[in-house]
Model the fold of this input.
Amino acid sequence: MGDKQRQREPFRVRLIIGLRTYGKEVLAAAIVVALVVGVAFGVNKFFYGFDSPLSTASTGSAPAADRESKGGRAEKKFVQSKDWKLILVNADHPLEGAFDGELTELRYGERVDSRIYPDLQRMFDQMREEGLSPRVMQGYRTGEEQKKRLDNKIKEYMGYGKSREEARELALQWEQEPGTTEHEIGICVDVSSETGDNETANAVWKWMDANCAQFGFIKRYPTGKSAITGVKGEPWHYRYVGEEAAQEIMEQGITLEEYLGAL
Ligand SMILES: [Zn+2]
Done:
């Protein structure tokens, strides 16, 4: 090869010359890389088999149920808990039968499911010890009583000149249909103070919001959650769910519907 030819060597040839010059170093580096990759792959295969957690996640092969819920098509059927404390009662989950449990009568004649009575009493004792004067305004009520309450509310709105249909819609913001309120199973209480004025009632609710979970109660209808509960904010309504569920619900600021996964 003459000088003239060497000057005109194409790129490919120059590359080969370069490899000839640095070939050993390049080859050594390639072997090191291959070894590292090979060992890593081998170790991975040894511990995880062919499907390492990483590769499973990246292929997107999620379980079928998960895929469906993401697509919003899954119609999960809500199953009521076998635990009496966690029975869900709302417009979508009406009661299946009339209450047939045991009731305990309170100081002013209101009644509650006897199973919630000990914790309710402990809570009220504690409040009284701290200078508050709580009073249960409403406990258990029958479906018939609930119907009367709703009818009266409808009449009240009709008295303001609303049509029956309008009045019914407005009334349902305050009173539930018979069979759709947990008052009918006696495991909730509407609480106020002895005197019923704003200041003392507010003091009771404030104390209960902070402490009711310790006694197994939750604030059932928080303001701002009506889209989930179907009931306007009711600062006076507390529901018994047992201490474990109550702590979680109150700490997380969620509703019973969310806790039970019934949305
Ligand atoms: Zn209530």
User: Anything to note?
Assistant: The mean pLDDT is 81. The domain at 84-141+181-260 is CATH 3.30.1380.10 (Muramoyl-pentapeptide Carboxypeptidase; domain 2). Strands lie at 103-105, 111-113, 134-138, 188-193, 217-221, 234-240.
